[in-house]
Amino acid sequence: MSNKMWGGRFSERPDEIMEEINVSIDVDRHLFAQDIAASKAHAAMLASQGIITGSDAKNIGKGLDTILSEIGKGGFTFKRALEDIHMNVESRLSELIGPAAGRLHTARSRNDQVATDFRLYVRDVLDETDAALAAFQASLVNRALEHAATVMPGFTHLQTAQPVTFGHHLLAYVEMAARDRGRFQDARKRLNESPLGAAALAGTSFPIDRHATAKALGFDRPMANSLDAVSDRDFVLETLSAASICAVHMSRFAEEIVIWTSPLVGLIRLSDKFTTGSSIMPQKRNPDAAELVRAKTGRVIGALNGLLIVMKGLPLAYQKDMQEDKQGAMEGFAALSLAIRAMTGMVRDLVPDEAKMKAAAGEGYATATDLADWLVRTLKMPFRDAHHVTGRIVAKAAEGGVALHELPLKDMQAVEPRITKDVLGVLSVESSVKSRTSFGGTAPKNVASQAKAWAKRLEKERKSG
Ligand code: ARG
């Protein structure tokens, strides 16, 4: 027998390979809740517009509720021969309520159905991602408050550059996460319009109320152009773009954790909960979670690239190619969600080695800029000259194999006679970070107040939540 949902003009069954390439139920079954919600809104609207009877709409609604609970309980059999979630649900509905089920598909098409379902799905993803990022920020802020004054080396080119505080470093990721959240919230605003009622592509001759279904599904308004409504997937692309940027942030942080936990560096220790052992080398503590966060980024960016490539040559309106929009996106979203949650866990219980951080912060003449700044401030030297003088002093310290603050004053004075013992006050790593009080700088006072401000902001958000 040919397909019972669309097989009217067909006499032969599809080839097995046709079925195999066409079927999407393994992926779009994840849209069951959205599909049922959209169908319920559609049926209620059809009744209130007098397009179907109230009693048919009631039976349809009840039948859909039954299907929702069957699927929720795992008692629903998804049939590959029925291709997709829409036809699986409708076919079960007709088993449950008989011919009235056939009225549900009045004034709609699977094209506006799937576009609606996937918008609702991605909207949930956006909301969940926002909540996960808020939790990530909260764990960073907690640790930043605790470590507002913990000195660590700051790096450029992965070379020790200037001392910073660990809290300051963590707050950098809070800022990145805030921008990520902004991008997701922004995507949500543009996504939140309803394609339902666009029908196959041209709209419908039935007197439907698209504003009513849009409202029932929590959309801000119906999409204004039926061709656009069924044929664009920019809401997925935009979400995947934001997800890719966010995943890159997670990946950079993960890479830092991998570096910091290397025994060669040893700035932090991850908890046992986020570390694995080696089956052959008993001494190993591998940062697998961080490595996998780094790798999962590939899935997210891959999903974005994949869908851009699917979409790039498609004429309006719906093309079956677009069925390929879901699998990669769903996997990409799941990968990002796991990455955010893993980073949150690692941040929550990592232990910095404060003594080692402080020692490392002073290595490599990290306070050389402080010396140069002292020369500018106290001796009114132009910065370029101060840079040169400092360079010669650093060379002397290197020759003697000592840190800058350990170099005898007379050796400094041999380079620049006007240097006084006052200079020693700026050469320690603590006084270096303390002096960086410019807005956004690393001074512990700044960091503590920024962390407190963030804590307040996140708390307020949670309450209004
Ligand atoms: N499974 C399809 C998809 O995900 C649903 C829409 C099918 N529309 C159609 N005209 N065949 O895109």
List keywords for this structure.
465 residues; 18 helices; mainly alpha; single chain; 5% strand; two-stranded parallel sheet
Q: What is the topology?
A:
Blueprint (H helix, E strand, L loop, with lengths): L15 H7 L2 H4 L3 H17 L5 H19 L12 H13 L12 H37 L4 E6 L2 E7 H26 L1 E2 L15 H7 L4 E2 L3 H6 L2 H28 L6 E2 L18 H24 L14 H24 L1 E2 L1 H9 L5 H12 L3 H18 L8 H7 L13 H7 L8 H21 L1
Parallel strand pairs: 3-4
Antiparallel strand pairs: 1-2, 5-6
Helix pairs in contact: 3-4, 3-6, 3-8, 4-5, 6-7, 6-12, 6-18, 7-10, 10-11, 10-12, 11-12, 14-15
Q: How are the strands of the largest sheet arranged?
A: 1-2
Rg estimate, integer Å: 30 Å
Helix content: 55-70%
Proportion of β residues?
under 5%
- Estimate the mean pLDDT confidence: 96
Bound molecules: arginine
Explain what this protein looks like in three dimensions:
There is one protein chain. The mean pLDDT is 96. It is elongated, with a radius of gyration of 30 Å. The chain contains 18 helices and six strands. The strands form three sheets. A two-stranded antiparallel ribbon has the order 1-2. It has a two-stranded parallel sheet with strand order 3-4. A two-stranded antiparallel ribbon has the order 5-6. The longest helix is centred in the N-terminal third of the chain and has 37 residues, at 110-146. The protein has 465 residues and is mainly α. Helix 10 runs antiparallel to helix 11 and helix 10 packs parallel to helix 12 (326-349). Bound molecules: arginine (ARG). Residues 24, 28, 84, 110-111, 114, 318, 320, 322-323 line the site of arginine.
